[in-house]
Structures are given as structure tokens and as C-alpha cells.
Amino acid sequence: MKRVQVAIIGAGPSGLLLGHILDRAGIETIILENRSADYVLARVRAGLLEQGTTDLLRETGLGQRLDRDGLVHHGLSLAFDGELHRIDLTASSGKTVTIYGQTEVTHDLMDARAASGAPTIYEAQNVTPHNFDGASPRVTYVKDGVTHEIACDFIAGCDGFHGVSRQSVPQAALTTYERVYPFGWLGILAEVPPADHELVYANSPRGFALCTMRSNTRSRYYVQCPIGDKVEDWSDQRFWDEVRRRVDPQTAEKITTGPSFEKSIAPLRSFVAEPLRFGRLFLVGDAAHIVPPTGAKGLNLAVSDVRYLSEGIIGHYAEKSDDGLDRYSDRALNRIWKAVRFSWWMTTMLHRFPDATPFDQKIQEADLAYLVASQAAMTSLSENYVGLPH
Ligand code: FAD
Ligand code: DHB
What we know:
Layout: E1 2-3, E2 6-9, H1 13-24, E3 29-32, H2 37-42, E4 48-49, H3 51-59, H4 64-69, E5 71-73, E6 75-80, E7 83-88, H5 89-93, E8 97-99, H6 102-116, E9 120-121, E10 125-130, E11 138-143, E12 146-151, E13 154-157, H7 164-167, E14 175-190, E15 199-204, E16 207-213, E17 219-225, H8 236-246, H9 249-254, E18 260-274, E19 277-278, E20 281-283, E21 289-290, H10 298-318, H11 323-350, H12 358-373, H13 375-385
Parallel strand pairs: 1-12, 2-3, 2-13, 3-9, 6-15, 13-20
Antiparallel strand pairs: 4-8, 5-8, 6-7, 10-11, 11-12, 14-17, 14-18, 15-16, 16-17, 18-21, 19-20
Helix pairs in contact: 1-6, 1-10, 10-11, 12-13
């Protein structure tokens, strides 16, 4: 049986970043991932990093490509009622956000792990955590038909919403909270310049739309769509026509269209499982919580979880103190719930809900009108959007 200090399940951003930080602290890890490295790298997801996220990436030696290719934004715009309203995030919060795709973050983390020589087992089947209630946890997995067993001090469940880690916890030990939204986001990537140098979030009678980007030559657009829609229902032409109808005329004018090279539909959900610690098993990132994408909190929350857990694990080995591990769940949940609230609020304010009453519609309009007329409201949006302190 092999032995490591920390076994990490999942090589998404949470697992790779935790592995990277622990490796730099001289702590031995193994990462077990059930997909291939190419599959993980090809998954198009988040794109907007909070300042706390970019600070941590830089602190841990991952700033080089980020500083070269990341696009730093100082504001965003809201489009509704045919008009565009800019919110100056930096003036209100003193901070910025950075466009740098999750695929790029993953790429940098995979390169760092390869350079360190620390092991990642891709295409590991049947990964299963055992005995995390006791002092000697183990993880088993099957690779190329052979079963392997790893003894460890701690297991980090970084395996996303559908992973095995949360499912391994006895139901009675978990409390879950959930809201499922009655629509999805259809997203595309296209090799065209963005409509604006900053993001445009649109609320229109036809539903929500978001104009975002991955670089100055690559755009990402999203539209709210019925939950039952299929990607095949949406030709590129239909998609571009719909985005143009949902944004203000000024932005519609500036949209450059072109063939999409990625198109996918994501459901929207808020979900939190509590607590995040079960003996020697810790849940991290999407394994413990999901937010709707409005406001771009998912990846950023995964990063703050990793910061807290890595501090706890390093404290255990370096300072012989379990204080950080004992506080991990409460510390992370405190920040998680604030991001869950913010994502829910942004989603509620910007989407058309199929079951909305005329009263709900009026409240939504008042929410938007208040936001763009009140410095206090813009400051509140800004401090949440750029990310609450870690
Ligand atoms: P994941 O990225 O899900 O990584 C988990 C890893 O564990 C995966 O590699 C998976 O293959 C692996 N795994 C799963 N099960 C097992 C198992 N049994 N054994 C071993 N390995 C396993 N966030 C934003 O902020 N902005 C966005 O625009 C945005 N868009 C998104 C679009 C989509 C379609 C999705 C699904 C998510 C999006 N998110 C977005 C959320 C963001 O991508 C996630 O919050 C982020 O990926 C969380 O990272 P993670 O490492 O915790 O989980
Ligand atoms: C992106 C996604 C979001 O959900 C968001 O609020 C901002 C940006 C993106 O994919 O770039």
C-alpha cells in the first residue's frame, strides 16, 4: 500500500490548486481524477477571476501567463429598458476583476504539477474514500484493471457536484440547501472581438443575456433559455439574433458575429451541503456548493475554500496545530453563504422567471432602477462582485 500525506480526489481547479499549494509547502499529495487530462482541459466554464483569486495565484507562483494574458476590468455594464448603465467597480471597491479562462487556470496548474513531479492519476476508476471517520483513512481506485490502495492522513474531496466524496458521507451527517432555477444558460464561444471592453449583463423582456470574453479576439456570450432546450435547437444565426434583441441598441450595434466553436447549455442551481468536514475528509469547491453562474462566483469560491483548507493542513504539519482544520468548515461556509446570496440576487434581478407575477416584475424593475441610481447600492454590488475578502 502506498502512503501520502493528503489524497486529493478530483483534478479540477480545486484539486489542482490545493495540490499545488501543499506541494510548495513540502506536503506530499496524490491527485486521483476519473477523466483524462485532455478532457479536463477542454471543459469550457468560468472566465472571471476576483482579485483575491488572482492574488492567490500570483502568491503561489502562477502569475506569469495570468499577468500577460489576463484582461483587467474596472467596471461592468447593466443593460435594461433599452439603456446601458456602467458601474465603476474600482471606484466603488478599490479592486478589479480579471478575465482569464478556467481552462487557462487549469493549464497553468497542470504545468506546475508536472514540473513538481507530484503524481496525478488520470482516468482513475471507482475512486473511493474509506475510514475517514477514524485515524487511518484510505482511498482505493482502479487503474488499467488493477486496484490500488493509498493510505493517507487526510482526504480532500475536490471532485465537483457529481463526485463521490460528498456521496460517501452518511446522509444523516449532511444538511443540504437547494434552489433550482426554471431556466438554463446557453453559452457560446466565437473567435470574434467582444462587443465592449467590459462585460454587459442584460435584463430584457426576452430574458437575460451576457456579453463576456476570453481575450480581445475571443468572445463568450450567454442567453437565458428554457430548461428543456437542446443545443441543436440553437443555430448560430438564432443565437446571435437573440443576443442582439436582448441587449441595448448601442451594444447590439457593436456585436461582431461569427461561427461558434463551442455551444453548451448549463442548468442553474444554488446548493450548499454542510458541514465541509467529516473526520479526516474535507469537501472543497463544487463538491460542497453550487451557485448559478450570474456574478461568476463558482470558481472563485473554490479558490477561497482551497486557501482556508491549505492553511489548515499546513498548520497541522508545520505548527502541529489543528486550529485551522477545526475552523475550516465554519470559515469557508461564512464566505460561501454570502456568495450564494449574491449569486441568487443577481440571478433574480436579471432573469425573466416563467412564473413571475406582475408584482414580481415591478419589484425587479425597482431593484434595477434603485441599483443604478444609488451609490450605496452600486458599492454593495461592487464589493460582492470583486469578491469579499478571503
Ligand atoms: P470541478 O471543476 O467540477 O472539478 C471536479 C473534478 O473532479 C473534475 O475534473 C471531475 O472530472 C473530477 N471527478 C468527478 N467525480 C470524480 C470521481 N468520482 N473520482 C475522481 N474524480 C472525479 N463558474 C464561474 O465562476 N463562472 C462561470 O461562467 C461558470 N460557468 C460554468 C459552466 C458550467 C457548464 C459548469 C458545470 C460550471 C461553471 N462554473 C462557472 C462553475 C465553475 O466552473 C466551478 O465552480 C469550478 O469548476 C469548481 O471547481 P472544482 O474543482 O471544485 O470542481
Ligand atoms: C463569465 C461568466 C459569468 O457567469 C459571469 O457572471 C461573468 C463572466 C464568463 O464566462 O466570462
